[in-house]
Design a protein that fits this description.
Bound molecules: adenosine monophosphate, zinc ion
Distance between the termini: 29 Å
CATH class: Alpha Beta
Number of helices: 4
Strand content: 15-25%
Order of helices and strands: HEEEHHEEH
Oligomer: single chain
Helix content: 25-40%
CATH superfamily: HIT-like
Number of domains: 1
Length: 143
């Protein structure tokens, strides 16, 4: 993709601070370090989001997640946690439409990063949850 900033990084057309590279993926520092060590893992193949992964690409990219995670853990002894995030779609905070996985090392609850899950437990009962699960499962039957 000509106008894709991450393709340009992969092709060396614009600079990045590289952490790891192999035939299939590149990992580099996020330009806006949410916390020190904030790293992005991207497939070298341009795919916009997780919905575009086939099994082969998933195997090439997603299996590298623990590798990067352990490297961060070893590199930063004061790191006490790690958030791994993958945003898909603008409403889900995706701003670069070349699929990428964020690794955000956590050092304390004062880090400039948070995830908020609203608690809607009281709005659901088993019947409602089973109906939702069936809706999803029906799409997985052929996989
Ligand atoms: P998202 O909002 O999930 O799409 O994340 C995109 C991320 O890409 C943001 O955290 C940006 O800081 C980061 N980013 C954008 N441009 C660059 C760049 N040239 N080099 C490194 N990271 C970048
Ligand atoms: Zn791209």
């Amino acid at each position: 993709m000509n106008d894709c900033i991450f393709c340009k990084i992969i092709n060396g057309e614009i600079p990045s601070i590289k952490v790891y590279e192999d035939d299939d993926v590149l990992a580099f520092l996020d330009i806006s370090q949410a916390t020190p060590g904030h790293t992005l893992l991207v497939p070298k193949k341009h795919v916009p989001d997780i919905f575009a992964y086939d099994a082969d690409l998933a195997n090439k990219v997603l299996t590298k997640i623990p590798l990067i995670a352990r490297a961060l853990q070893a590199a930063f002894p004061t790191m006490t946690g790690l958030n791994i995030c993958n945003n898909n779609g603008a409403v889900a905070y995706q701003s670069v439409f070349h699929s990428h996985i964020h690794f955000i090392p956590r050092y304390s609850d004062q880090d400039d990063f948070s995830i908020h899950f609203g608690d809607h437990t009281e709005q659901y009962n088993t019947e409602k949850l089973e109906a939702i699960a069936a809706q999803i499962s029906a799409q997985l039957e052929d996989d």
